[in-house]
Amino acid sequence: MVSNPAWCKSYLNFKDDISRWVGTQDMKNFLDLAIFADSFAVAGDKQMLIDLKEFLYSKVQNDIFMAYFAKSTTAFETPTTISTFMGKENFINIKKAAIFPIVHGIRSLALKEKIKETTTIKRIQILEQRKILEKDRAAELLEALEIVNTLRLRHQIDLLQQNKPLSNEIDTNSLGKIERDLLKESFKIVNDFKKIVSYIFKLDKIY
Q1: Which residues share a beta bridge with 16?
Q2: How far apart are CA 30 and CA 22, in angstroms?
Q3: What is the dihedral of CA 114, 117, 122, 126, to 10 degrees?
Q4: How would you write the pLDDT of the chain (207 residues) with one tens digit per residue?
C-alpha cells in the first residue's frame, strides 16, 4: 500500500475518502471501504488510524448503506448439495463459493457493530461474545473457514509444485470422500450464514 498513491494520503484526505465511499452506492467505493475496514497500523501514529476508524463508524450507521455494503455476501452462488458440484462441471471456485461469503459477511457485521479487530477469526469471536452470533454458529463458521482455507492452500501448493498459475478453482473429483463430505457441510454452513446476513441487513428490501 505504501507504494500505491491511492493509499498514500493525509489524514484529511482519508476523511474525505471515507465520506465519499459512504456517500455513494458504488462497487468501487464498497471495495475501497472494505480494504480500509481491514487495515491496521504497523508504524507511525496509530491513533490517526483509530480516529479515522471512529469517523468511519459514525458515517456507516445507515441501514440502507449497510445493506448495500453487505449485499456482496450473497453475490456468488454456493452449492446446496454435493451433486451440484460433482460431475462433468466438477471445478468450483472455493474463494467465491465459501471463503468470500464468510469473510465479507463477518466484515459487514463487524462494521455494523464497530468492531476494530481486522481478522475474520477475531471478529467472529467478538460477535459471539456480543451475542450477535450464537455460540454454535460461531463455532461452525470457524470450522468451515478452516476447512475451505485448508483446501484452497493445499490446492495452491500443488499448483506451485507443478509450476502452474495459482487458481481458486478446485477439481472436486480430486478430493477424497472425507474432504468432499467436509466441503459439503461447509457449503451448508455458508448458505445458512448467508440467510442470517440477509435477515440482519434486510437484503430482500434492496435491489
Answers
A1: none
A2: 8
A3: -30
A4: 667 888 888 999 999 999 999 988 888 999 999 999 999 988 889 999 999 999 999 998 888 999 999 999 999 999 886 555 554 468 899 999 999 999 999 999 999 999 999 999 999 999 999 999 999 999 999 999 999 999 999 999 999 999 999 999 998 888 889 999 999 999 999 999 999 999 999 999 887
**Cell numbers of 170, please?**
478446485
Helices (H), the chain: 11-23, 27-37, 46-59, 63-70, 82-85, 94, 100-112, 120-129, 135-161, 177-201
Query: Beta-carbon neighbour count of residue 78 at 10 Å?
Result: 21
Cell numbers that stand for 129 in this block: 461474545
How far is it, in rounded angstroms, from Cα 179 to Cα 153? 14
